[in-house]
Amino acid sequence: MSDTGEEWQVARRRKGAARQSRSLQVSSNSTCCQEHLDIRKTVKRIRDTVSELRCEEFWQEWKEQLLVAGSATLTKPPDNKDTEGPTDRLGRTRDGRLCQQLECVCYGLGSFSSCVSARYQLAMLLLLLDAGQIPVKDCSVYDPAFSSGERDVLSELGLTVLTENEEGKRLLTKPTLFYLMHCGKALYNNLLWKNWSTQCLPLMIIIGNSFNGMRDRTIEREFKRDYGYITQAVSVCEERQLPCPSRLIDVFSDTAVITFPTSSLNRLPQSTWAEPPEPQYQHCLDLEIIQRETRS
Q1: pTM for the complete prediction?
Q2: Domain covering 7-73+99-273, topology
Q3: Domain-by-domain residue ranges, the chain?
Q4: pLDDT tens-digit map of 50-80
Q5: How far is CA 28 from the centre of its chain?
Q6: How many helices (H) and strands (E) does the chain have?
Q7: In whole angstroms, what is the distance from residue 63 CA to residue 136 CA?
Q8: Residue 209: exposed, middle, or buried by beta-carbon count in 10 A (0-12, 13-18, 19+)?
Q9: What are the backbone angles phi and psi of residue 95, rounded to the nearest 5°?
């Protein structure tokens, strides 16, 4: 399916101003006509976009890079006799059983019913779940911008809609794919802080903005001061840049698959992992993240 030039103009304007007016979008999106979405029509539109992306040449590279990252993250439990023997690149044994199964978390998707870019990003998420054989129900999604109608659409698609703003502070116990398209640096930094150990980081696959790109676009002293966990992760993570066709540059630009090989993490001194302080961001004028409300 194709989108009109006008739709793409709207998407570009929204994308460019997204971080400056996000809080305004949250309030307006929750009260407009999105509350009364035609769920069936919206689901069909998303599935049509999935079919469109599936035919794109660049999708095959995305799929292959996910499989490569998955093969490095999904490891066979050493004490499980039922899963002994050779495994394929997604951790399956010869009889097709999974030794481990990826889960998925998606933050910051945006208002996909009104924003073309967000709809394409949602469609790509569904493709990635299928390629990684991740059950749709095992993918949790959250964005404070979602309207009640959009939450209904996501539930209809089978996704698990979170009700709490985690601010990215989710502690991992299982291998997890994080889909974080054009999210703010603070969200990435929070996620790294919460899992800042040689046990948790290797469980993480991120498909989102390149850490190197973040560093290159930020004043060095401010980057180190405000986003210390990204600063340290740049030197030990493994980034594979994902291709993006020119017509979708506003949707998938600067996207990479990011993993954390244990061998790289072990090169850092032990003091790196000792009692990591929670990020505060007191110097950040534009935090690029919606923080959860604190109750007195």
Answers
A1: 0.82
A2: Rossmann fold (3.40.50)
A3: 7-73+99-273
A4: 999 999 999 999 999 999 999 888 764 434 4
A5: 24
A6: 11, 7
A7: 17
A8: buried
A9: -85, 10
Structure tokens at 163: 């009700």
Measured between alpha carbons, how far is 128 from 177 in angstroms, rounded to an integer? 10
What residues contact 28, with CB distance under 8 A and at least 6 apart?
A: none
Q: How many residues does the chain have?
A: 296
